[in-house]
Design a protein that fits this description.
Chain lengths: 92, 538
């Protein structure tokens, strides 16, 4: 079984700092009225944070293609539930 | 299956095998996949019988058009408990976690699953789940097994507790699915390529993917419902900007794919049993294997067909209806291939085969009544009538449960080291077959005539159908009792089972009956597919 690069301690702290920074950005953006875009921005930031956790803390970066496949396939199904639900709620 | 490095000699060492160790600790802390599978089988069977008792009480009440024996509220509780127990505590875990746990490593030529401790954890999380569900009986649920909002958000019943129980059951299901995916990827015996795997494993692989991907959605949905009830957050409350139909979207995004968690493993069992008792190689191996994956995938695209009358947008209705018809394709691929396997086979009618053939027959009826519900125009007429009840009992009981029974009869000698009384098994089968059809075919007729489901009282014009259906349910119950008695008798004083009583070729039959703790003394090397029946080697 191949194991992804565990990375250096420096990388972990850099990712941790990035996660904290993005959390602060999420809070600050919530005070700016962007209408519907508020949700979009919050979800985008959350996605970036989740990706950082998966790539570095869960060692996805450097994993083999099978593990990448298992990591990416659920994103398709997430898109599916969003698409199916929005087809109803946006067009009702 | 042609194997090297392991011969029939290995299978000779009979005795109590994995059952040798005694005492409750040997079960509660076991890491043996076979014991964990057996614990799942016992537990789920108990809930099957309890759920069945609720079904009989419902049928008893429906003997008369007016409510006689219970109040309407009690009736609501009974059908909720019947549905919830049958779905969450029996039909979802029974084959995957019970028979799957027992036979996946044996089929693979492995000593255990990839994560034995996770496997044991999954059982105890399941146990915690059913204990919480039993705890919810202090204020029994009356929402139906679907928990629809807005009623489930407001009722005084223990919805939050039951949701937590189902959440735990779901977590157990995810752990099992994850374990099986890794096991099938990593633990195959040398030489067992994907295309040499028994079809039961393909079915279980597809099932596991659905379990891992779909179950978190229903878990989150129940958390949202709990947040709505406990914290007053308005996810599904229009007064607070929520949407009750959103609950149905989330619920069915899980609960439609999960019907394939129920049916795919049963299809896997049928794919094993049919060639053994036809003495013919399975027809269309790859088509059956890949149709399992296709069913798993298509199952995610059609959840909206449960919601045509919910006020969903017309475009969404049309898309979901259109996509629904595609599910029939991979399912039909399987049925045609099974029938082609039977064609000119040397068919014998032992009890596993009787149940496998019953699966095909009843599942065709269940499957072909599906398009009437998938088409919007007829759905509006049939929605929430007994036609739906008949349709899903033909697929879930006529399909999955018959597949489960086929598996139990097929693998009983391997699991216990004892043979069943075949004559009694056939009598039980006949009672089950007749009882099932009398009970549920009548419901198609009542449904098309407009009888709504989930009511304790009904118009007198449906009386005849209901009396016939109740009589059928008694015959069905008798058949299941005879079957259970036969299992218990088999356990107590069945004749010792040889290692391969059915002359089958998959690897589990190369082990002793019952198998030893680590299954194989020497890991087999696989050189061929497991369906070479009718050839000189078999």
């Amino acid at each position: 079984m191949s194991h992804g690069s565990t990375g250096s301690r420096r990388t972990y702290f850099a990712v941790f700092a990035a996660l904290l920074l993005l959390t602060v950005v999420t809070v600050l953006v919530s005070y700016v009225d962007l209408g519907l875009l508020n949700v979009v921005v919050a979800l985008l930031i959350a996605s970036v944070k989740a990706s950082l956790v998966a790539l570095f803390f869960m060692h996805l970066k450097g994993e083999n293609r099978l593990v990448w496949g298992f990591a990416l396939v659920p994103i398709f199904f997430l898109a599916l539930i969003l698409l199916g639900t929005l087809t109803d709620t946006m067009l009702r | 299956m042609e194997t090297e490095g392991v011969g029939r000699m290995e299978a000779e060492g009979n005795g109590r095998g994995y059952l040798a160790e005694r005492g409750w600790r040997s079960w509660a802390f076991t890491l043996d996949h076979k014991r964990i599978g057996a614990m799942y089988l016992w537990t789920t069977t108990v809930f099957f019988l309890i759920g069945g008792v609720f079904a009989l009480l419902l049928r008893l009440e429906l003997l008369s058009p007016q409510a006689h024996y219970f109040s309407n509220h009690t009736y609501n509780i009974f059908f909720t408990l019947h549905g919830s127990m049958m779905i969450f505590l029996f039909i979802i875990p029974a084959i995957p976690s019970g028979l799957g746990n027992f036979f996946i490593p044996l089929h693979l030529g492995a000593r255990d699953v990839a994560f034995p401790r996770l496997n044991l954890a999954s059982y105890w999380v399941f146990a915690a789940g059913f204990l919480v569900i039993i705890g919810s009986l202090v204020a029994p649920m009356d929402t139906g097994w679907t928990f629809y909002t807005p009623y489930s958000a407001k009722t005084g019943a223990a919805v939050t507790t039951l949701s937590l129980g189902v959440f735990l059951i779901g977590m157990s299901s995810i752990l099992t699915g994850l374990n099986f995916i890794v096991t099938i990827h990593k633990m195959r015996a040398p030489g067992m390529t994907w295309h040499r795997m028994p079809l039961f494993l393909w079915a279980m692989y597809a099932t596991s993917i659905i379990q891992v991907i779909a179950t978190p959605v229903v878990g989150v949905t129940f958390l949202l419902l709990a947040a709505e009830r406990v914290l007053g957050v308005g996810f599904f409350d229009p007064a607070k900007g929520g949407d009750p139909v959103l609950f149905q979207h989330f619920f069915w995004f899980y609960s439609h794919p999960v019907v394939y968690v129920m049916i795919l493993p049963a299809m896997g069992i049928v794919s094993e049993v049919i060639p053994v008792f036809s003495r013919k190689p399975i027809f269309g191996y790859k088509a059956i294997a890949y149709s399992s994956l296709a069913i798993a995938f298509m199952g995610f695209l059609v959840w909206g067909h449960h919601m045509f009358t919910s006020g969903m947008s017309p475009l969404a209705n049309a898309i979901f209806s259109f996509l629904t018809f595609f599910v029939a394709v991979p399912t039909a691929v399987k049925v045609f291939n099974w029938i082609a396997t039977l064609y000119r086979g040397s068919i014998t009618f032992e009890s596993p085969m009787l149940y496998a053939l019953t699966f095909i027959f009843l599942f065709i009826v269940g499957g072909l009544t599906g398009p009437f519900l998938g088409a919007m125009a007829t759905n509006v007429q049939l929605h929430d009538t007994y036609f739906v009840v008949a349709h899903f009992h033909y697929t879930m009981m006529g399909g999955t449960v018959m597949g489960f029974f086929a598996g139990l009869h097929y693998w009983f000698p391997k699991m216990t080291g004892k043979m069943l009384n075949e004559k009694v098994a056939r009598i039980a089968w006949a009672l089950v077959f007749v009882g099932f059809n009398v009970t549920f075919f009548t419901m198609f007729i009542a449904g098309t005539r407009g009888m709504p489901r989930r009511y304790a009282e009904y118009l007198p014009k449906f009386h005849t159908e209901n009396v016939i259906s109740t009589i059928g349910s008694a015959v069905l119950a008798l058949g299941i009792l005879v079957m259970c008695w036969n299992f218990l008798q088999g356990l107590r004083k069945g004749a010792p089972a040889p290692s391969d009583p059915w002359r089958a070729l998959t690897l589990e039959w190369r082990t002793a009956s019952p198998p030893d703790v680590e299954n194989f003394h020497e890991i087999p090397r696989v050189a061929d597919w497991p369906y070479g029946y009718g050839t000189p080697k078999a």
